[in-house]
Amino acid sequence: CTHCCKNLLVVVPVPLQSVEVQVDVKDHVATVVSTLLYQNKEEKPIEAVFVFPMPSEAAVCHFSAKVGQTLIVAEVKEKKQAREEYDDALSSGQQAFLLEESDQSPDIFSMSVGSLPPGESASIRLEYVTELDVQADEALRFCLPAVLNPRYQPTGTETGSVTVTSVPSSLVPYDLIFLARVQSARPISKVESNCTMDPLEFLSQDQTAASVKLAAGHKFERDVELLIYYKDTHEPSAVVEAGQASAKAGTLMGDPAVMLSLYPEFPKDIMSSVSSSGEFVFLLDRSGSMEGGQIASARDTLLLLLKSLPMGCFFNIYSFGSTFEQIFPESVEYKQETMEEALKKVEMMQADLGGTEILAPLERIYSQSCIPNQPRQLFVFTDGEVGNTKEVINLVKSNSGSHRCFSFGIGEGASTALINGLAKEGGGHAQFITGSDRMQPKVIQSLRFAMQPAVVDISVKWDLPKGVSATVLSPPLTSIFQGQRSLLYAQLTGQVLTEGCVTVKYSLAGRPTENKLNFSLKPTEDTGLTVHRLAARSLIRSLEQEQGDHRGQIDDAKKKEIIDLSVQSGVSSSFTAFIAVNKTSGEAIQGPLLRRDVPVPSNMEIDCADVMLGAADCDDDDFYYDDEEKYALPESKAKRDPLLELVSLQKASGCWELEPALAKAVGKTTKDLEDKQPSAVMWATILALVWLHGLKADAKDEWELLVMKAVTWLQSQNASGLAECVEAANSLLGCSVQKNALGI
């Protein structure tokens, strides 16, 4: 296993004392500065190695170390050269600092702090910029990954050099200080978090600037997530940034760069219709790490998905661990019998299939022929703990012409590289479900996206003044969804003083559509090269993905192009690393170095370093590890909530039938329902709809699709007495839902 936990049987001092993180958010871009304080409390010099998670979409753009009064700023160099310089410095008694991206996955980084003498401290500064994703409720999501679970390396795949040292989150020996400042042209409505925060503090009267701080005592049991809400809805925008004065004109860093944020608006008549065709393939992670509440939530979500599918479509469900299973030999037509058979098997699903080998089931799915006139939509649910991320993403990319892939990262520490990569290369949409998030609303939003007509023939046209040209640095737009942001980066050459225009053209349900954005070409002041770095990161990732086979081999010319771009822009890549050597440290540091692996929090207490009993009185900076004791997470025994109980009773056609279970779900007796019954055909369905609208309106985004199906069924009955049924249901349930509110 490439990424495994080390199990130590002795007391191990941990040199990392604290991590301080400052986040500056401007509209939908965050600049993150992390300061890590190391101290050697031992009697011999040490080398501290810290393997930690990083957002896969981040552009890492600065790495430096301060030892005493000396500041050593790292340079970006080719990875092999950087490693050699680091090793040479240590062997000659110099201090050196190395930061590199994992060869296996761009969301894991390794930081090496070399030759720290006894009693000495070092302050390490790491900086990156990243875009914030738009959520279903229009919030912008920032996530500071803190949890890094072991990544499963399938048998027979390439091994690598990154080893993760994990401990249960409650035993992390260093502190986290976290402060976020938010600034926007629009007023800030609120900032929410999955962690305990001090109250939001507004820094301006118009509420366009605010700060929020993590409350003391954070236990590292979860990633730190912020949801930022602005008072006005998102609108298309452009930011033009002047080039770096010291960089050569004509280069990416020397010329101005532009970042375009597009929010396509589709015609309302197209959006109100839902496609009744499609092949929906669900792929569920049943590895051991999904045990407990995660697998239970995934089962409930599959129930909701199956009830929300339209009649006439096709579907199948695959699940995987070390092996994989499928409910049907091939996708089947969606009807009552097939839905019931699938639900019975879903109810029995447990997290009992071992490791996380996702490649084999994907290969099986892609080997199945597509069904004519039934566009394939793939939904992948996983905690993302795989070691062959790049191989999996390249397989999805090589099959992107035949399907759309919607991915869901479940739980703390889900691999952002895997989840975002699947959706990006599969032309779909990615969602992350952490902490107390309900999985269902996010999944149903993606189902709505999947049921939207696919946007095809996407093209981007630039209208710029004479003498000004744009070189696009982003990959081509392959998917557009209503209400979701699409980002474009470009390098501008020529005299950029006036205005420009960009037009995105595409075909939606056979109808040519276009969205225009006019923008000023005047550079924005004081952006700190953020746009250039994000543009460089976008181009680097695109070049890294331009690979022939799904094994991810890359030719030397492409590799050199990536290295040159990375060095020029100062943004890391899979082929480069940051290296800093302290050449002013005076005397050579004597003696062999003790290697100290800094532990990272993990929610995986199985296969991780476990705590030796009786170690309660050890120093806070020390760790006892033992792998004799194993801790298993308890399976959730929670009673299914009434909403899911009601949903489970709906038939594939969209109707409900009068039965004792329905009475129980709506909190009544069978006699209550029969006494109020005005019409045998529609009564149960109307009752369910009134209950949903009247008592579960806050969960509308979860039940909206299955209610649309119920309304279609009611309309097909051509029965009279609808108003009488609605009145009787309101009377029985104590609601006041109007007939027209039901859509009938």
Describe the structure.
The chain is an alpha+beta fold and 744 residues long. 24% of the residues lie in helices and 30% in strands. The chain is built from 16 helices and 38 strands. The strands form nine sheets. Strands 6-5-10-3-2-14-17-16 form an eight-stranded mixed β-sheet. Strands 21, 22, 23, 24, 25, 26 and 27 form a seven-stranded mixed β-sheet that branches. A six-stranded mixed β-sheet has the order 7-33-8-9-4-34. Strand 26, helix 7 (416-425) and strand 27 (430-433) form a beta-alpha-beta unit. Helix 8 crosses helix 15. The longest helix is centred in the last third of the chain and has 18 residues, at 700-717. It is globular, with a radius of gyration of 28 Å. It starts with 11 loop residues before the first strand and ends in an 11-residue tail after the last helix. The relative contact order is 0.15. InterPro entries: VIT, VWF_A, vWFA_dom_sf. This is von Willebrand factor A domain containing 5A. Residues 1-130 form the VIT domain. Residues 279-451 form the VWFA domain. It holds the Pfam family VWA_3.
